[in-house]
Amino acid sequence: MKVRLALTVLLCWLAGASALSQAQTLRVGMPLPGQQPFFWRDEAGRYQGIYADVLRQLALQMALELQFVPLSQARLLRHFELGEIELEAGVTRQSVERQALRRVSLFTRPFGLVNEVIIYRPELSFPVFILKDLKDKRVATVRGGAVPGWLVREDFANEWQIAQRVHRGWNDIGLMKEAVALHYQRQGQLKYQISLPYESNPVSFRLHRSQAALLTEFNRQIEQLERSGALDEIVCKYLCGTQ
Description:
243 residues; alpha/beta; D-Maltodextrin-Binding Protein, domain 2; 2 domains; 8 helices; 37% helix
């Protein structure tokens, strides 16, 4: 009897250990060189920011492992289409995305809002506050990012390049997120003007369609983070007192 009981306990332990060892791993794309305060890799190689912290909280509740994969924005989207990246953080739904990308994309419920702004050289005398003001003007944008087709876009790898180019006068105008523009302006002591937000977009996690079974639980856990106040605490950790 004792032998049978011990054997049962051992089998249960082995089953539990096997389940833990087989915890599902999600490959999460991080756009290089990062977007402080949202998502970046610090000098020690740790992934930081609002999106990284929210994902860790969700993964903890869902018993998921996260594998962060740093890629340029354009490569991140290509790898997502191929299913080599299974989750992208801080995404706004865009009607102008490639059809191939839209076919494999599922979106969680929104977990925040992001303001989009225009940065421009201080020498410019006009107040650039809405996108329609930029018609027929050359605008620095992130390669792979979705922007209206009537903009004369000049693509660069990331928002840091755009901020540097406008600061140096190599571009007159660029598009980026407000919090990122403020961070670069203050931490990098860059000289450019920042418009009022031309739009505010809800942000979600983009989940590859191959992981559709996780969508309902992602939504449930995001709602739980909101209700508990944990989501606000994460956002405040990075943004309170910076704007």
